[in-house]
Specification:
The protein has helices at 5-12, 14-24, 26-44, 57-71, 78-96. The chain is mostly helical and 132 residues long.
Length: 132
């Protein structure tokens, strides 16, 4: 997991976390954090070696924001929803390379970075339907 229940208490306060735990059960907080980690990994899997260990502080914050949003179900206050949407925007930026965690990216076994560049088609069908 990229964040813990203690991280959430430090970030959002004991009162809110106790209220959420009372409403949903303390094990649900751990599940929300697991789910947040999985969601983060989906975005970062093509860019970084996973799991991120140790998790950079920004990823810990993102995990807390995602988990908090999930714990509120459909009753998330505006601030909680906005923080969740901000977290997703950051993850999309990390995924598409417009933002970076400052960590080494994925590399090939020979140590060279993988680069994909669009180019002309190599294979296709000719106008007469024959495959080339």
């Amino acid at each position: 997991m990229y964040a813990t229940a203690n991280d959430m208490m430090d970030r959002f306060g004991d009162a809110e976390m106790m209220q959420l735990a009372e409403r949903a059960g303390s094990e649900v907080i751990e599940q929300a954090l697991d789910d947040a980690t999985a969601e983060i990994d989906i975005y970062l899997s093509n860019r970084y070696r996973l799991p991120l260990d140790p998790a950079p502080p920004v990823i810990r914050r993102v995990a807390c924001d995602i988990a908090r949003y999930r714990l509120f179900d459909n009753a998330a206050p505006e601030e909680v929803r906005r923080r969740y949407e901000d977290a997703l925007r950051l993850l999309r930026s990390l995924a598409n390379g417009t933002a970076s965690l400052g960590l080494p990216g994925l590399v090939e076994p020979n140590g060279e970075a993988v680069v994909v560049r669009p180019g002309a088609k190599v294979f296709g069908r000719r106008p007469n339907g024959v495959f080339r």
